[in-house]
Structures are given as structure tokens and as C-alpha cells.
Amino acid sequence: MDIPREYNVVTNKYTQNHDNKVKCNDEIMKAEAAKSYWKRNDGAREAESQIHGQDYCKKLPITVQK
User: Fold this and answer.
1) For the whole prediction, is pTM greater than 0.70?
2) Which one, 22, 46, 56, 65, has the greatest CB density within 10 A?
3) CA-CA distances (angstroms) from residue 2 to 27, 35, 51?
């Protein structure tokens, strides 16, 4: 039984509306990548950068500390 396929693995193209489907797939992948990125990078690094080095100031002489 021969099942018609939507995608030709030999030519690496869709059989119909190839350009539209590739564009749609690219948009979906970009959205998923952005969602994954923002899930990992939720601003925790920004908070770390704001407090980085504050303990070092406590080691300085009192006249230099601000």
C-alpha cells in the first residue's frame, strides 16, 4: 500500500507549498527557542550582577568604603 507523503526525504522538500510550510516551520522553531531562552534566563543573572562585588567592599578600610 502506497501512502502519499507530505514531505520528500530525497529532495528534502514538501510536495506542495514548500516555501510557505518552511516559513511557518521556521517561525514555530524561533518561537519555541525564544520561549526556552526566556525560561532559562529569567533575570536571575541581572540580580547577581547587581550584588556582585559588594562583599569585597567590606574588606576595604573604613575610610575607603562608601
Assistant:
1) no
2) 22
3) 32, 39, 64
Return the C-alpha cell found at 41. Answer: 534566563
Task: Give just the sign of the alpha carbon dihedral 12, 13, 14, 16.
Answer: negative
Cell 526566556 locates to 38
- Cα 19 to Cα 32: distance, rounded to the nearest angstrom: 20
Helix (H) or strand (E) holding 8: strand 7-8
With left for phi above 0 and alpha for psi between -120 and 50, is residue 52 left, alpha or beta? Answer: beta
pLDDT in tens, 13-57: 999 999 999 999 999 999 999 999 888 877 666 666 666 667 777
Please give the radius of gyration of the chain, using alpha carbons only, rounded to the nearest integer.
26
